[in-house]
Amino acid sequence: MKNKLILFTFIIALFSCKLSTKEDSKKINTIVCTTGMIGDIVKNIVGDQIKVVTLMGPGVDPHLYKATQGDLKLLNEADVIVYNGLHLEGKMGEIFEKLEKQKNIIVATDAIPKADLINNTEFKGAYDPHIWFDVQLWNTSTNYISKKLCELVSDSIAQKFKSNTLTYTKSLSALNDAIIANFNNIDAERKVLITAHDAFGYFGRAYGFEVRGLQGISTTSEYGLKDVSDLVNFIIEREIKAVFVETSVSSKSLEAIVEGCMEKDHEVKIGGKLYSDAMGKEGAPDGTYIGMVKHNVKTILKGI
Fold first, then answer.
1. Closest to 85 in 3D by CA, of 67, 64, 62
2. What is the DSSP-derived secondary structure letter of residue 64?
3. 257: helix, strand or coil
4. 107 forms bridges with which residues in the sheet?
5. Predicted pLDDT of residue 238
6. Residue 152, SS3?
7. Which of 119, 223, 218, 133 is nearest to 176 (CA)?
8. What pLDDT digit, counting tens, does each position of 111-149 carry?
9. Are the CB atoms for 211 and 193 separated by under 8 Å?
10. Which residues pair with 197 in a beta bridge?
11. 167 vs 39, 88, 153, 240, CA distance in Å?
């Protein structure tokens, strides 16, 4: 009887080990994200189930960002890496290419059909990476990231992810409806958005704004005196009253525009700061994607 009991205990222990091994093989401990916007998606999907690390904090320009030794360590130790793609993290492209063969990597913009992407006129065959400014497109990316993460975890954890995703995507749909409602009563001639760099193309297309940036889609592009002169003339011709600086881009370029307009007797003000390539501080209202978008909408409405 004693031997049978020992044998039974051994079988139960062995069976438990096999179950644990199966679960552990689909266990994710850490997900590393590049931008705050992507990190926010992932946090909303996984909840408190998995540690989520974001490399680029408030005020950081991803176009110019260079990975530190600490970042490389985090990326090397990550179970999953999620990044934007479309060359937003331009200087990190080679790192992701090297890690693709050994890491689970999810590219947020892979969710978007080519027909829905805006062409990057600066680089042939490239696209504008700032898809998060169209909330519906960002909703599509959210569902895609969720689907890919669900494939990497156990069924029980995947069900939690799916439930969290459904809650979050409903919030995004409500946000999109609210933006449309806020801008519906604005006269078309007033719906012109002037910013430091051309990050708001998707926003303009989705919500009916004409968008002009002094710099191109990437902040790595340089602007010259002609660019400043052309934008000044455009502002005067259209009688625009406000331009908007960005939290992740130097305000000097837009200050030069304001001065140029004043020299030609046209008064234009800085309408406020917009979040473009980075969100606000963690824990602050604008430290989430939804909070960031709400801040931008409120600032634009007040400015124009």
1. 62
2. T
3. helix
4. 83
5. 93
6. coil
7. 133
8. 999 999 999 877 778 999 999 999 999 999 999 999 999
9. yes
10. 215
11. 17, 28, 19, 39
pTM above threshold 0.85: yes
Distance between CA atoms of residues 243 and 268, nearest Å: 7
Residue type, 185: N
Residue 104 β-bridge partners: 80
According to DSSP, the residues that pair with 119 across neighbouring strands are: 127
Distance CA 199, CA 163 (A): 32
DSSP letter assigned to residue 119: B
* Residue linked to tokens 């793609």: 85
What would the two tokens of residue 275 be? 């979040």
Q: Which residue has the tokens 């989520």?
A: 52
Domains in the chain, please, with CATH? 27-180 (3.40.50.1980), 185-303 (3.40.50.1980)
Rounded-to-integer distance, Cα 203 and Cα 74, Å? 32
The whole-angstrom separation of Cα 214 and Cα 222 is 9
Structure tokens at 53: 């690390």
